[in-house]
Task: inverse folding
């Protein structure tokens, strides 16, 4: 209460490691605002008070499918998946799989 700047963000980091050695990291982020009062019953933690930029609902009010599509976790996972797919295509080329 009483805080003018209510900007916030969720961040997720994913690391890919081989034999215990990190070979690449990826970060996803979703920016938004902390609302004055909790709204919504879904989600957990800060979901009912976090309203992502470009949306009029908090994570706690959103359908799970939408939240999962725009979340910081989804963004990080998408980057990690693209990396793995790119690396697999290099292996395919190298080994004629």
Result:
């Amino acid at each position: 209460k009483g805080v003018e700047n209510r900007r916030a963000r969720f961040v997720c980091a994913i690391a890919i490691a081989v034999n215990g050695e990190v070979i690449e990291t990826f970060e996803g982020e979703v920016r938004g605002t902390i609302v004055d009062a909790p709204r919504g019953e879904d989600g957990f933690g800060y979901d009912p008070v976090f309203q992502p930029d470009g949306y009029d609902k908090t994570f706690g009010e959103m359908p799970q499918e939408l939240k999962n599509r725009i979340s910081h976790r989804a963004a990080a996972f998408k980057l990690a998946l693209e990396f793995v797919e790119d690396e697999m295509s290099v292996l395919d080329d190298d080994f004629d799989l």
Remarks:
- The chain has a mean pLDDT of 90.
- Residues 72-95 form the longest helix (24 residues).
